[in-house]
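Hey, quick one: can you model this chain's 3D structure?
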Amino acid sequence: MTTSPTGAVSGAPRAWLRLEGVAVLALATLLYARGGHSWLLFAALFLVPDLSFAAYLAGPRAGALVYNAAHSYVGPALAAGAALLTGRPMAVALIWAAHIGVDRALGYGLKYERGFSDTHLGLLRSGSARAAAPAG
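Sure thing. Here's the predicted structure for all 136 residues.
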């Protein structure tokens, strides 16, 4: 495994981590559909974890902490465990996991304290920079 100077994973491990995101998205969405949950609820809650961006108003350290808490699979796993223990539906846990899966598949990784664009999956680039850069 190789890492970039920023500490981001690269090469085949990066591709596997992004594929993992696709797998989580697919499984969470399938389980959601099989559970007969409301698609209106799915649409309403799907982007809720992105509200964590607001923590960047307090600086990159607070922003990374809150963003990572909202974009780690630990949260949906705990929510699913709580649902299982209480007999409640797993809808929120599945929506949350699906959101994280999409982010990972698109290359939005967990953030370093150096700034929002510095992630464990590499530096985020603007749309124009992404179009000009080779895939990797």
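One thing worth noting: Residues 128-136 have pLDDT under 50 and may be disordered.
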